[in-house]
Design a protein that fits this description.
Elements: H1 12-21, H2 27-48, H3 52-63, E1 72-76, H4 82-89, E2 94-99, H5 102-111, E3 116-119, E4 134-139, H6 153-158, E5 160-171, H7 177-192, E6 196-209, E7 222-232
Parallel strand pairs: 1-2, 1-4, 2-3, 4-5
Antiparallel strand pairs: 5-7, 6-7
Helix pairs in contact: 1-2, 2-5, 3-4
Length: 241
């Protein structure tokens, strides 16, 4: 069943807060917006019926070989911990998180789901982790216009173990289509170069409520999105002699 009503039924304040962080403001301003949004963030995304954390965690769990409890995961742009909650429900227990917003990290810390949380502005600085460190890396909701640049992909790959998994999402709404095309070109180039292989690219129709009529997919009141799962290629053994 299609949930009724359009994003136009969203409280105006929610629409404004969502629009503000997607407006492609300069980085310091955007981080300030996220800091200020932290306290209301989970209520707002519930109003948006934001399904990405659930969909991403379910996709990763499906691809991930058992056992999960000891696997080390990095939740990039972890926000308040929505993705951690979904991963935890699916048996992942060793979760590290990074985010550019101190306000968001404070909320994430209060969940008690992360073993480690670090402040890190992706695209500006490297991830605070050694190479080949994580069994899986997730970036849910942050790859988008005015947010994290698609140039971060090699850095995500760097901290992933050979054979490890990367779970990425982006939105398919009209104002993000240029970014999505750039992202998919970058994903494809890395695949052609043998850095990773694509396991899944799942288009999802009801990703979250649209905040404007123009963004809505064919008048449904929702925007669509996509979940990608990649596996980092194991280092090939050099032949002797």
């Amino acid at each position: 069943a299609v949930p009724g009503g359009t994003g136009m039924g969203l409280p105006a304040a929610v629409r404004d807060r969502v629009a503000a962080v997607h407006r492609g403001s300069a980085l310091p301003e955007r981080l300030r917006l996220y800091d200020g949004w932290a306290a209301r963030y989970e209520q707002d995304v519930a109003a948006l019926e934001y399904r990405a954390p659930h969909l991403a965690a379910a996709s990763l769990a499906f691809a991930f070989p058992a056992p999960r409890a000891g696997a080390r995961l990095l939740d990039v742009a972890c926000g308040t911990g929505l993705v951690a909650r979904e991963l935890h429900r699916r048996g992942f227990r060793c979760l590290h998180g990074v985010d550019g917003s101190a306000g968001m990290l404070e909320r994430a810390r209060s969940t008690g789901l992360y073993q480690e949380l670090r402040l890190c502005v992706l695209g500006r600085e490297p991830l605070p982790a050694p190479a080949d460190h994580y069994d899986a890396v997730t970036v849910v909701g942050a790859l988008g216009e005015g947010q994290v640049p698609s140039t971060v992909l090699p850095e995500l790959l760097r901290v992933t173990k050979p054979g490890g998994f990367l779970c990425l999402t982006t939105r398919s709404n009209s104002s993000n289509l240029r970014y999505k095309a750039e992202l998919e070109a970058a994903l494809g180039q890395l695949e052609q170069s043998g850095a990773w292989q694509k396991l899944l690219a799942q288009e999802v129709e009801y990703w979250e409520r649209a905040t404007t009529e123009e963004e809505s997919t064919q008048g449904t009141g929702y925007i669509s999105g996509v979940v990608y799962i990649y596996q980092k290629c194991p280092v090939p053994h050099l032949e002797e002699g």
